[in-house]
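Researcher: Let's do a round of design. I'm pasting the structure tokens now; please hold your answer until I've finished.
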């Protein structure tokens, strides 16, 4: 993880000449000093660790897909949730993987029932265990973070319902509050109930209108069927990884093991190929899904709010650095001392907001240039932020379908107060979890 903030220095501006072109540089000691004229020192972060050949190729493909989709949007095509040939192929491949698991289970039952004079029972049990290991899993509710149900947070769930209606889906069943600088949606349980995870550090630095945009993006993933798709593909990937584990080579093999390793070479390469293929096939659909979710963000919260969320994403590293600094200071005993009426975690969100508000425009601009240079993205699944932003700003700007009112906002923050305290305490005590 690279961090954008430089050394912890005095707050305040200094000026110095650019060592490359001599232009005057205004510098804020908390951030990287760089030159807007000639890009000197624009990206001093440690070079992204040398990725393997495969990873580099994947990144290149991601960027190419992103640029092509952007081209389509710019050409006036509206993004629609459709599966292209690659998406359908990925779906079929995943279903075939699950088909093998089903076949193993059926085989297990058949051997157990017919018995085959005892031998069938052994084979049946073996196949049953195999099928059980490979079975698709439904995730459970997390137990390491505060969870809110509809009754705990009626105003928040009301807002979620309102945004959900705008993007053409229903609301969620549970909201989890986490210490991440992110938000996400997933399903849990066999009935596909819906979980929205709100990372408090992100939520706290957003304006009410930006929060609606973020909700629009996340709920948009439901209306586009991304979570259902993700469940099928994700489980197939998992199943293939387990198969690969079964045929993994034994290290320091004996003669017999070396022979087995050799025999397994064929299925191993086949599985490796299937895993890579499935990933490659879903790459484009994933990108399309993100652009689509962004358009939902704009529809719910306005194009302006959705674009300003992208701006915040550019400087999230700085928020992370600030929170880490608070946690570290606390751990080495240099932090704010708790007093009778004030604990060290109190006011954490206010301090975070103040930090974000103090980030100079030059830092945003630097991050924009770094993003364009590196093809920066929030994570491996999202297209580069600068492409998402460009895509949003192509075409006529949308006004907000949902606008926050002060009453709802204050009720929501009351509903989140307990969870917010828990997360702040956790960050100060244990640092940022990943
Ligand atoms: Zn310069
Ligand atoms: Zn997304």
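Researcher: That's everything. Go ahead.
Model: Designed sequence:
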């Amino acid at each position: 993880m690279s961090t954008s903030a430089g050394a912890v220095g005095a707050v305040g501006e200094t000026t110095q000449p650019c060592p490359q072109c001599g232009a005057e540089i205004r510098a804020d000691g908390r951030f990287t000093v760089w030159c807007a004229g000639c890009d000197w020192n624009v990206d001093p972060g440690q070079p992204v660790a040398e990725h393997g050949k495969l990873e580099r190729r994947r990144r290149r493909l991601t960027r190419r897909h992103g640029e092509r989709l952007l081209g389509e949007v710019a050409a006036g095509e509206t993004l629609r949730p459709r599966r292209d040939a690659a998406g359908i192929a990925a779906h079929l491949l995943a279903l075939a993987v699950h088909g093998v698991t089903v076949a193993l289970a059926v085989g297990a039952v058949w051997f157990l029932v017919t018995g085959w004079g005892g031998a069938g029972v052994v084979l049946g049990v073996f196949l049953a265990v195999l099928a059980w290991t490979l079975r698709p899993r439904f995730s459970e509710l997390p137990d390491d973070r505060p969870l809110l149900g509809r009754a705990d947070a009626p105003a928040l769930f009301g807002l979620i319902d309102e945004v959900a209606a705008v993007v053409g889906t229903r609301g969620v069943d549970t909201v989890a509050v986490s210490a991440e600088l992110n938000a996400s949606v997933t399903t849990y349980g066999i009935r596909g109930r819906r979980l929205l995870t709100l990372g408090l550090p992100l939520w706290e630095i957003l304006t009410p209108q930006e929060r609606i945009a973020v909700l629009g993006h996340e709920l948009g993933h439901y209306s586009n069927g991304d979570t259902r798709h993700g469940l099928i593909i994700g489980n197939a990937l998992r199943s293939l990884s387990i198969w690969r584990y079964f045929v993994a080579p034994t290290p320091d093999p004996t003669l017999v093991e070396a022979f087995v390793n050799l025999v397994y070479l064929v299925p191993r390469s086949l599985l490796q190929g299937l895993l890579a293929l499935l990933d490659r096939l879903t790459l484009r659909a994933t990108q399309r899904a993100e652009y689509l979710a962004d358009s939902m963000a704009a529809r719910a919260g306005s194009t302006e709010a959705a674009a300003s969320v992208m701006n915040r994403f550019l400087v999230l590293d700085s928020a992370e650095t600030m929170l880490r600094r608070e946690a570290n200071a606390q751990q080495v005993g240099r932090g704010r001392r708790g007093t009778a009426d004030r604990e060290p975690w109190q006011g954490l969100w206010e301090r975070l907001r103040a930090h974000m508000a103090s980030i100079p425009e030059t830092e945003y601009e630097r991050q924009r240039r770094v993003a364009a240079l590196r093809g920066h993205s929030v994570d491996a699944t999202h297209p580069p932020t600068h492409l998402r932003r460009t895509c949003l700003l192509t075409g006529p700007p949308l006004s907000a379908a949902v606008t926050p009112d002060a009453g709802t906002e204050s009720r929501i923050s009351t509903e989140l107060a307990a969870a917010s305290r828990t997360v702040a305490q956790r960050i100060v005590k244990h640092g940022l979890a990943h």
